Amino acid sequence: MEERVSEGRDKEEEKERERESEVQSLVLRLRQYQAQAETTSQELAMVQQAIAEHDKAIETIKYLKGLKPGDELIVPIGASSSIYVTLSTTDRIIVRIGGGVSAEKDPDSSIQFLEEKRRGLEDSQRQMAAVLQRIEQEAQKLQARLQELVSKTGAPK
Fold first, then answer.
1. Global pTM value
2. Does residue 2 surpass a pLDDT of 80?
3. CATH architecture, range 2-153
4. Eight-class DSSP state of 81
5. Could you tell me the residue ranges of all domains in the chain?
């Protein structure tokens, strides 16, 4: 009879060890998901900032199209400072096309180029938002399972 009680106790202890092991595994996976979510959120913020910069550049070029050579502008130079400049031409815009290379384009071509880049950024933004949503859903599933295990066993040791 003592042997049966001992076997029962051994089985219960084994189940408890398995639950604790699963809890530890879930906690580790949850931390990994949280780190991925944080990284993805930061990348998403950078993409959103790039989209805003493209919008600003497009609007500025549209504004410049209405000006004429000789018009005076105030141009920010950083650190909350600006300078006055005289516009020499309105028919050439310098845009960075990638790899540290810039090209001179007319205003309409510049706008078209920037709008294409913006669309690419928006596609990336949508993809990243979907990835972030999947990560958060998986993390919620892990949290639910973890809560279920912890409520059965009590706090892990």
1. 0.78
2. no
3. Orthogonal Bundle (1.10)
4. E
5. 2-153
